[in-house]
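Blackboard transcription, Thursday session:
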Amino acid sequence: MSVSYSLLEQIIFESVHYVIRTVHSQSKVLDPEETNLRVKIATRFNEKEEKKKKEKEKGIEKDKEKKNENENQKENQQETVGNKKKDQENVPQLEFISSKTDIERNIINRLEIIGYRLGERTAERIAKNKPRFQEEVEKMRFVAKDIWTELFGKMVNNLRTNHQGKWMFQDDDFKLIRNISFTLSEELQNLNHQQNTRKNQQKQKQTTTTTNITMTESQKQILQSYLYIPCGIIRGALSAIGVECTVTGICEQLPACVFTAKIINKK
Amino acid sequence: MKIVSIAILGKKNNPLYVYVTNEENKRKFEYIIHTSLDFFEEKVPLISPISKKSTQNQNDMYLGHLFPTEDYKVYGYLTNTNYKLVCIIDDSEIKEQEMKTLLNNLHTILVDAICNPFYITDEPITSKIFHLKILDLIGKK
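(Written on the board underneath:)
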């Protein structure tokens, strides 16, 4: 069953890819949705091929992982050196997590669309009482200040640009992920280690008030799923004002996250 | 003051809602609304940086040459989010303040309609309550 399904998918993807190539090769301007679709299909295709290769190597890797888990349990009592080794050993696990299935991509899309519609509608309500936006800077500031205060009760902490169509909204204490905690056993051991280092740090600096928790790659992957809605909110608000863009969100330390908006220039 | 027609146009200049008091002349007013689109584009770059929130471009399109029997005044209103509101009036005596408040109220009604979770953007607005609200708005004046 699984083999025939994957073949069918391949056929469908190839045909859709072909259609998009032929139909849109003549048009100069591509809708951002379609470009996203193309990218998605291309990445899905690549991931399918990678998956096949992995499935061949699966038997070998499973044995490797079991060995790694045993080693992890022994090494957790050590300090920084042990963590570094753990990250390296987590690399094969990462590849499994990052190759997303159909269902996951579907969910991500739906979350983003939820955020998009939310952003559009709040922007409509708030922009009603605002003066006309003359420049791009004003539009970005509108999102960073007005929409953020409306939805999250505070403004974005830092708004940066690279003057080439990329804008970064940095929120040092993002409300939606503020109270997330990880309860896997590995993570608890991680936290214990970090609390020890934090105590040492607190003796040195007594000024920091927010407790930033550094995370492993797997934690970041899990947290990524909470950032799709705010990405959609930013995209929706900007498109309501008239700025077409794609938004991605990254969370490096737990309450702080950065959303980057890349403006799509239609020529 | 007699309001003859009200129209709402979307970001891509697609008609989202057209209301005409006299159903017989609907095509004519649709045509007038369509021609008013050019005026929106004309007026926008002329706005000074210290202007009001949404421009009220007053198009005095006296259609003397097109329709020698009738005179109309067409008022436009461009929201921050690129929605265009058009109001066609049959009379010649109107205070600008009245028109401003009318279009402002129209804007609030529009925002309420857009916030409907079942409403898909860039689709015609088919909500009955929206229609009733607009009838109320027109009926008052």
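Lecturer's comment: Chain A touches chain B through 17 residues (CB under 8 Å).
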